[in-house]
Amino acid sequence: xxxxxFPYRRPDIRVIESEFSNxxxxxEQATEADEQHALMTAIHNLRREYESMCSIAYxxxxxxxxxxxxxxxxxxxxxxxxxxxxxxxxxxKALTESKFKEELERRWGKQLFRIAENAQRTFSPExxxxxxxxxxxxxxxxxxxxxxRIPFEGEERSLAQLAPxxxxxxxxxxxxxxxxxxxxxxxHEAELDELFDRLVKxxxxxxxxxxxxxxVELGYARMNRTDYGPAEVAxxxxxxxxxxxxxxxxxxxxxxxxxxxxxxxxxxxxxxxESGNANPKGDPEQIVASAKRMYEEMSEETGVFFRRxxxxxxxxxxxxxxxxxxxxxxxIAKQEAPFIFANFNGTSSDIDVLTHEAGHALxxxxxxxxxxxxxEFPTAExxxxxxxxxxxxxxxxxxxxxxxxAEKYKFKHMSESLLFLPTGSAFDEFQHYVYENPEATPEExxxxxxxxxxxxxxxxxxxxxxxxERGGVWLQNGHVFCIPFxxxxxxxxxxxxxxxxxxxxxxxxxxxxxxMNLCQAGGSRSFLELLALGHLDSPFADGCVEGAVEExxxxxxxxxxxxL
Length: 564
Fold this sequence. Notes:
Layout (H helix, E strand, L loop, with lengths): L12 H17 L3 H31 L4 H29 L4 H8 L1 H10 L8 H19 L3 E3 L2 E3 L1 H8 L4 H17 L1 H21 L5 H8 L7 H30 L24 H15 L1 H12 L3 E4 L9 E5 L4 E8 L4 H19 L12 H14 L4 H5 L3 H31 L5 H15 L9 H4 L8 H5 L5 H19 L1 H14 L5 H7 L10 H15 L6
Parallel strand pairs: 3-5
Antiparallel strand pairs: 1-2, 4-5
Helix pairs in contact: 1-2, 1-3, 2-3, 3-5, 3-6, 6-9, 7-8, 11-17, 11-24, 12-13, 14-15, 14-22, 15-21, 17-18, 17-21, 21-22, 21-24
């Protein structure tokens, strides 16, 4: 069955509540571990049904945010989702209080019970209305960004469709494209400021109701960070500042010389070569065909996986008006089907996002065997190891996509991977500021962003662009609005992916074995436990960041990038 034919039925929260409550009551009354074990399976099956309907609705809504039917369905799910969360919270409470807990942990794994204990600190019936409002506000941001119709070069374009012009060989075109993008957000600045201010105050209110001092603590709990906290993340950011920022300054100077300008401006940021960036050869159909060949040659499991993605229409890749921005992977567990969402625009990012989301999709398929919703994906920072490492495992096949420009692509990809570490750290530090100072005004938040930005990305020159000079960059970031604290995860995972890249160069079979072990484990272990399984050093450990980026810097230094 193809995705377009997947049946969708609005999940009736009243029916779900009745069935869920009945199963929880039986679980609490059970007199044997085997009985509770069977009831857990029944509960997980019920959850898969509900969550699959939510995933189908979300995917179809983001494919076209102007579709009134799925917009209404998403609104319904935003409204009823917190009620469902309350049911899951009741289940978690029953799990943690089970007199057969030790026996159940042996069968289902300790991570489920860690998540259950942690999640009880993130929910209370008194915050249901607050959660409903939070869902509504984050959906507003998604729709606002998707509504962009920016006149450029004779056509109206979405934000994603502007991206190729931002990488044009003509500097004036790059500048105009960057200005057109920022102009959209500047036009909506007051609306975005108000929306974000409401979210910050609402999340702070929720945190206080749950007994937290501020939302930072609740934000970490929501991310299920069970084996590290803000102190470890601050230590990681410190490593990035001391070790990576100086390297990025050298990379940016190389870029300035390479593209032949006297000073790098913000609109030069993604333009890597004077001869033009490496762009994929062929149309989207050819890209998918090349990806199919790549995954068939990579391994048996990846071949089977990607053939299915193609045959069952489990990807929506083209950028179009009304489509939500960005890329993601969703799981429709009832159909045992991952779904890849992207916004192809003819740049190298098409290959980045396809391989990245394929890493998520492969892992989620591997994890369905547990029949535990919590294990379909691990925690976010571990999730991103699968995706970011897949980007690197795909390198030997880059000629399929870029032809003679494959090495040019690799250099840009690796450079941008390294450059992201300070950017990701800056967004994380900014969010700590925001939620530790919830009464800050929009202007104070922007000033704080500019101060942080200058520490992590001192090379940024906005050439007098008022919106950006005042600190408006972060208003363009959907993660900051919709998934607070989900950004450092990319930086942590990137350091881990560097380790796997190095291992793949030295012992390719061992690297792939470790990678697939991580995929098979899914979310059944905590972040640090997964690192141990994959023989990866913790990014929080002293010297880890330096050790990981040292090899990357050496590789980049060996490349004569002016000849690419």
